[in-house]
From TrEMBL:
Keywords of the record: Amino-acid biosynthesis, Aminotransferase, Cytoplasm, Pyridoxal phosphate, Pyridoxine biosynthesis, Serine biosynthesis, Transferase
GO molecular function, one term: alanine-glyoxylate transaminase activity
Organism of origin: Brachybacterium paraconglomeratum
Role summary: Catalyzes the reversible conversion of 3-phosphohydroxypyruvate to phosphoserine and of 3-hydroxy-2-oxo-4-phosphonooxybutanoate to phosphohydroxythreonine.
InterPro entries in the cross-refs: Aminotrans_V_dom (IPR000192), Pser_aminoTfrase (IPR022278), Pser_aminoTfrase_mycobac (IPR006272), PyrdxlP-dep_Trfase (IPR015424), PyrdxlP-dep_Trfase_major (IPR015421), PyrdxlP-dep_Trfase_small (IPR015422)
Alphabetized Pfam families for the sequence: Aminotran_5 (PF00266)
NCBIfam families reported in the protein's UniProt record: serC_3
Protein name: phosphoserine transaminase
Record domain Aminotransferase class V: where: 32-343
Enzyme Commission numbers on file: 2.6.1.52
Uppermost EC category: transferase
Reactions it catalyzes: 4-(phosphooxy)-L-threonine + 2-oxoglutarate = (R)-3-hydroxy-2-oxo-4-phosphooxybutanoate + L-glutamate; O-phospho-L-serine + 2-oxoglutarate = 3-phosphooxypyruvate + L-glutamate
PANTHER family linked to this entry: ALANINE--GLYOXYLATE AMINOTRANSFERASE, AMINOTRANSFERASE CLASS V
Assigned protein family: Belongs to the class-V pyridoxal-phosphate-dependent aminotransferase family. SerC subfamily.
Length: 389
């Protein structure tokens, strides 16, 4: 580090940000995401009717029904598709899929940390063949290719670690018996999608749905349900009961989960889904996240010290914006001074190891707060530069 960059780092850490510049809500994390005050108020209002009560009884089952029915409306579910949920997050669903949806071999697009994890799960499964893996450098977007000897194609709709979005469409020429499994953890509910192009569009509640972790949710096609039922009764496949997709399907149809769920998570999620629907549904959420992420990309274009990490504009995420910071500026000093002023969770993904900002723009993040964040970043960068000029 040069003397100039050291001086700028010291100047950054000593800065005070005027309170009038700060956003009204300083949470810009890529997950868990900000939770709206109205959701917390709703949780408080039902604390005596659903919290600390049986999840097999009507009050909690009604909350699960709100979630399932709300998602069915939000995603305009095609005929025969079902909303299924189970205990554990998307990490648990990778195991569920390895047991209950992948018959022999899968193909994976790997473009970052989370897509790599699902590929590693299937590679380590003793009952499955070595998966076919199509890799791309972090920050770039690969495409699936038709392969005769796979029975499932898997990729993330949005790679949270790098801020890359991958199109959701069935691979051209894929057979009807080849399933499409899309990890939508960080973008479900924030971007338009045709779920009929998938057989499992799965996600967790702590991103666009502004809730807490502990659950996985999946929109399953009739083909996925049929395969789960067939594999679930196969004599040559042992499936742990906790990871049984058929058990999750059966329980979901009763508006419950196999084991006790995080009830507060369900309440928060139900409130968020209904709020999104009242705003205009998925079309509204898609428009808002395009606008807010676009504001950050436009800001990066006018700041010489900032470069969008994802070079191809078409591959840039609507919900996770990754911005490289010039090596002469310590990005950790930027995030540190912002954190001390209540603007939090804009650090890069730790394993990516870049001098970077990573800023989430889920539907609960409004344009005014993004504009305020940009003003804060301008203030910090300009004042620190002035201090060493």
């Amino acid at each position: 580090m040069t003397a100039a960059s050291t001086a700028r780092t010291d100047a950054l850490r000593a800065l005070t940000i005027p309170s009038e510049l700060l956003p009204s809500d300083g949470r810009f994390g890529s997950g868990p995401s900000r939770v709206r005050d109205a959701q917390m108020e709703a949780l408080s209002s039902v604390s005596r009717t659903v919290m600390g009560t049986s999840h097999r009884q009507a009050p909690v089952k009604q909350v699960v029904a709100r979630v399932r029915q709300g998602l069915a409306e939000l995603f305009s579910l095609p005929e025969g598709y079902e909303v299924v949920l189970g205990n554990g997050g998307s990490t648990a669903f990778w195991d569920v899929a390895a047991y209950g949806l992948i018959e022999k071999r899968s193909q994976h697009l790997v473009l970052g940390e989370f897509s790599q994890k699902f590929a590693a799960e299937t590679a380590g499964a003793p009952h499955l063949a070595e998966p076919e893996v199509i890799r791309a450098e972090p920050g770039s977007c690969p495409a699936p290719r038709v392969s005769e000897d796979v029975d499932a194609y898997a990729w993330p709709h949005n790679e949270t670690s790098t801020g890359v979005m991958v199109p959701v469409a069935r691979p051209e020429g894929a057979r009807e018996d080849q399933l499409v499994l899309v990890d939508a953890t960080s973008v479900a509910g924030a971007a338009q999608v045709d779920v009929s192009a998938t057989d499992a569009y799965y996600f967790a509640p702590q991103k666009a749905f502004a809730s807490d972790g502990g659950l996985w949710l999946a929109i399953l096609s009739p083909a996925a349900i049929e395969r789960a039922e067939r594999l679930g009764t196969a004599e040559d496949r042992w499936i742990p009961s906790f990871l049984s997709l058929t058990a999750a399907i059966d329980n979901s149809r009763k508006d419950q989960t196999l084991n006790t769920p995080a009830v507060a998570t369900l309440v928060l999620m139900a409130e968020q889904i209904e709020w999104m629907l009242s705003q205009g549904g998925l079309a509204w959420a898609d428009s808002r996240t395009r606008t807010t992420s676009g504001m950050l990309q436009a800001w990066a274009e006018r700041r010489g010290e900032i470069t969008p990490f994802v070079a191809d504009p078409a591959a840039r995420s609507q919900v996770v914006t990754t911005l490289d910071v010039d090596d002469s500026i310590d990005a950790t000093a930027i995030t540190s001074v912002l954190r001390s002023h209540g603007v939090v969770d804009i650090e890069p993904y730790r394993k990516l190891g870049r001098n970077q900002l990573r800023i989430a723009t889920f539907p609960a993040v409004d344009e005014q707060d993004v504009a305020a964040l940009i003003a804060v970043l301008d203030h910090v960068l300009d004042r620190s530069a002035d201090a060493v000029s």
